[in-house]
Every structure is written in structure tokens, then in C-alpha cells.
């Protein structure tokens, strides 16, 4: 008897952990440093995810969605020419609207009259049955039937399961259409093929500018009429079969000719072989005296900062940061080396003046070392007492008295790394 409660408790705990893994937490953007999601409950005052609420809403939704599927079925029958007279009536309505767009204002009112009010009246005043003579049946009398009310489909009823079936199929149709549209639109518009995407951008830009200027000159009524007739005519199964049978002999040659012309135009007029962006990067070779101010210099580190006497790291008493060996210096992220090796910067005076480095001695010849004139004790006194170093710098040969650190600047060119379509997909 004591095993069942513990087993039930273990199942509940496991179910809760599973939900925590499936359902994202509200502070996921803060943890992963992601841009804020506008659908988060922080920005929308709606209830959070709940399995009971989700189940209840799905039952209510499924019992009321039947009218949408009825409309979908009738629209499909209308566009696929199941009843040719109905489709021809639709073409007549589209023709009147295309030729006189002001009729659009009357269309919703006509729909309300013909598809809402008239059917509701006929429910209360039904037509006489065939066995009753018209002389004994009057349409001026009182209503013969109660008014029709739209009620949700009862659970476990046929209509409820029909709605579930149609909802299942609609989700599949939406997924297929979504994937098909993305398969057609994404490759030419996501710049995986930069030449093709640039051509599409150029054509759309020119078309937009042209429409801004000359859109009032186009015969929009005739164009909309041709579009509606073409779209509805292509829904006819006989027309579809005719188009498929004659595609290889009539449409394919024109498609190949248009594709070859587009490829030739892209190859001739779209130029994307511009050289990549290049920049200069720097690294400082730092050396430190071994055994005091009169000791020998030893290689210490390669750092992105010169670690001069007045640098924030030096005053704070921190050690320089970097890599120990020259070969471990990497290019910045998104860049690659443009030169084969590092080059010593012979303009030591220029970069010292540019960074306003003080308290140092500069070699203008030789190995171009920039050596401290003060030791670590002097820097410590600056940190504790707030004393100042004499501003400026001096020229020297590196043989005079100096501090514990010296550095020289190395430079190298980098260029922007090209990212191919395969790299973007892997990323």
C-alpha cells in the first residue's frame, strides 16, 4: 500500500520536469542574452501556458470552427468548377467589380442579404411541400418554424469529429503550403546566390520607382479583370490538364529562353567581385627586466595594449593580458590574415604621440623599443599617493636607466572573411 503513493509522486515529479524542459521559462532572454520576444507574457497581458486551459480552449474552438470548414469546402467547389453555373456567376460578379470598383461598397451588404437574412427568413417561412397546393399555403401567415440558432457542436458528436478531421487536414495543408512557398521564395531572396538576389533587388527597386511615378497611367481595371479570369479559369480541371500536356512543347522553350537571357544579363551587368574590406591590426611585444633595473630583458607576453605607465591596468596593479607566443595571436572574429607575417612598426614616435603615452623613452632607430622611465615602485606610488609623472617622452637608444617594462608594436593586415552559403547553413 505504501508503494502506490510514492509511485504516483514520482510520476508527478517526472511530468513536472518534462514540462519544464518543453515549456520555455520567462527569463530565457535574460539568461541567453537574446533580443526581447514581443510574444512573451512580459509584453502581453494574457494567461500563460496551461494544459487544462489549452485542452478546454481546443474543445471550444473545435466545436465552433465548423462554419469555417463549410465555407472552405464551398469555396473549393466554386473555384474547381464542380457547379459550372455557380462558377460562371462568380466570374460575372468579378467582371462587374473589376470594371466598376465602386461596387465593392455594395458587396458586403449584398452578401449579408443573400447569405444571412434570406436563408434565416426561409427557415422560419419554409416553402410549401410538393403535396400541398399553393392555394392552401399562404406566405403571409405567421412563421411555421422556429428561428435557427447556431450552436456549437456537441462533444463526441459526428460534427465534432468532422471538425477534428478537417482541422487535422488544414494543418497539414498549411504546413505543405508554408514549406512550398519558402522553398520557392527563400533561395532567390536570402542572398545565398548574391548575383541573383541582387538582380531581383534591382528589378524590384526599379519597378517600385516606376509605379510611384506612372501607376496612374496603367489600366488597372482591365489588368484586374484579366487576372481574375485567368485565376478562375486555371481552376478548371480541363484547363489544368491542357496546360500540363502542352507545357513541354510550348512553355518550356520560353522558360529556357528567359532563364538563359537572365543568366547572361546577370553575368554581364552584375559585378560582385569587389575586394574584401581590409584593416590593420596591432599587437605589442612586452618584455620585462629579469633581476631588477640592471637585469637582462626577457620576453614576457604579446598583448593588445601597450601597458604603459599610465594605463588603467598598470595603475590598478594588474598584470598584462595576452598570449605568450607570437604564433598564438589570432585574427579578430570574422576576419582572416591578409599578410603572411607580422611587420615591425618603425614609426615608434608616431604611435606614442597618437596615444599620448608618457613617462617613456622612445628608440627612433634600431629595434624601436619604447621603454619605461619609471619602475613599478613609482607606479605604485602613483596608485597610492596620487603623484604625477612628468608629462612627455624622451628619445634615447635604450642604454640609459629605465624601468621594468618595454614594448614595441607589430602590425599586420587582415581582411573580411567571406562567408559562403554552405557556411551560413552550417552556422
Blueprint of the fold:
Elements: H1 3-22, H2 28-32, H3 51-64, H4 66-79, H5 84-99, H6 107-124, H7 158-189, H8 194-214, H9 220-233, H10 237-245, H11 247-269, E1 278-290, E2 296-303, H12 312-315, E3 335-337, E4 343-344, H13 348-355, E5 360-363, E6 370-372, H14 376-385, E7 393-396, E8 405-416, H15 421-426
Parallel strand pairs: 5-7
Antiparallel strand pairs: 1-2, 1-8, 3-8, 4-8, 5-6, 6-8
Helix pairs in contact: 5-9
List keywords for this structure.
50% helix, alpha+beta, 8-stranded mixed sheet, 427 residues
Q: What helical percentage do the residues reach?
A: 40-55%
**Low-confidence parts lasting 5 or more residues at pLDDT below 50?**
28-33, 382-391
Shape: elongated
Structural class category: alpha+beta
Mean pLDDT: 81
Straight-line distance between termini: 55 Å
Main pleated-sheet profile: 8 strands, mixed
- Helical segment tally? 15
Sequence of secondary-structure elements: HHHHHHHHHHHEEHEEHEEHEEH
Percent strand equals 5-15%
The count of DSSP E runs of length 2 or more, i.e. the number of strands, is 8
Radius of gyration: 40 Å
Amino acid at each position: 500500500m505504501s508503494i502506490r503513493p510514492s509511485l504516483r509522486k514520482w510520476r508527478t515529479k517526472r511530468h513536472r520536469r518534462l514540462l519544464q524542459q518543453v515549456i520555455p521559462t520567462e527569463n530565457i532572454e535574460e539568461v541567453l542574452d537574446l533580443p526581447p520576444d514581443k510574444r512573451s507574457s512580459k509584453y502581453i497581458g494574457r494567461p500563460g501556458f496551461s494544459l487544462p486551459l489549452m485542452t478546454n480552449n481546443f474543445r471550444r474552438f473545435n466545436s465552433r470552427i465548423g462554419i469555417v470548414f463549410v465555407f472552405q469546402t464551398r469555396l473549393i467547389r466554386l473555384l474547381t468548377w464542380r457547379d459550372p453555373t455557380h462558377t460562371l456567376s462568380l466570374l460575372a460578379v468579378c467582371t462587374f467589380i473589376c470594371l466598376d470598383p465602386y461596387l465593392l461598397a455594395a458587396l458586403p451588404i449584398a452578401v449579408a442579404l443573400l447569405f444571412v437574412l434570406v436563408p434565416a427568413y426561409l427557415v422560419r417561412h419554409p416553402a410549401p411541400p410538393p403535396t400541398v397546393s399553393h392555394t392552401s399555403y399562404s406566405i403571409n401567415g405567421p412563421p411555421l418554424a422556429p428561428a435557427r440558432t447556431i450552436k456549437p457542436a456537441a462533444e463526441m458528436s459526428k460534427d465534432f469529429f468532422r471538425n477534428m478531421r478537417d482541422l487535422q487536414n488544414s494543418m497539414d495543408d498549411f504546413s505543405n503550403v508554408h514549406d512550398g512557398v519558402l522553398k520557392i521564395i527563400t533561395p532567390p531572396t536570402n542572398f545565398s546566390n548574391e548575383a541573383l538576389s541582387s538582380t531581383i533587388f534591382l528589378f524590384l527597386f526599379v519597378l517600385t520607382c516606376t509605379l510611384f511615378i506612372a501607376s496612374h497611367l496603367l489600366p488597372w481595371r482591365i489588368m484586374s479583370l484579366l487576372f481574375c479570369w485567368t485565376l478562375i479559369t486555371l481552376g478548371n480541371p480541363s484547363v489544368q490538364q491542357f496546360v500540363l500536356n502542352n507545357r513541354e512543347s510550348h512553355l518550356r522553350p520560353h522558360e529556357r529562353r528567359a532563364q538563359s537571357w537572365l543568366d547572361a544579363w546577370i553575368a554581364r551587368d552584375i559585378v560582385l567581385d569587389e575586394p574584401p574590406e581590409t584593416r590593420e591590426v596591432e599587437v605589442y611585444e612586452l618584455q620585462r627586466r629579469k633581476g631588477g633595473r640592471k637585469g637582462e630583458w626577457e620576453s614576457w607576453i604579446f598583448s593588445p595594449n601597450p601597458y604603459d605607465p599610465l594605463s588603467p591596468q598598470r595603475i590598478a596593479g594588474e598584470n598584462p593580458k595576452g598570449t605568450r607566443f607570437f604564433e598564438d595571436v589570432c585574427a579578430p572574429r570574422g576576419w582572416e590574415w591578409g599578410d603572411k607575417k607580422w611587420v615591425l612598426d618603425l614609426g615608434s614616435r608616431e604611435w606614442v604621440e597618437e596615444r599620448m603615452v608618457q613617462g617613456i623613452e622612445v628608440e627612433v632607430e634600431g629595434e624601436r623599443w619604447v621603454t619605461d622611465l619609471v619602475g613599478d615602485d613609482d607606479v605604485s606610488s602613483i596608485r597610492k599617493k596620487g603623484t604625477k609623472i612628468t608629462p612627455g617622452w624622451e628619445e634615447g637608444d635604450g642604454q640609459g636607466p629605465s624601468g621594468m617594462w618595454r614594448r614595441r608594436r607589430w602590425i599586420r593586415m587582415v581582411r573580411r572573411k567571406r562567408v559562403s552559403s554552405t557556411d551560413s547553413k552550417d552556422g
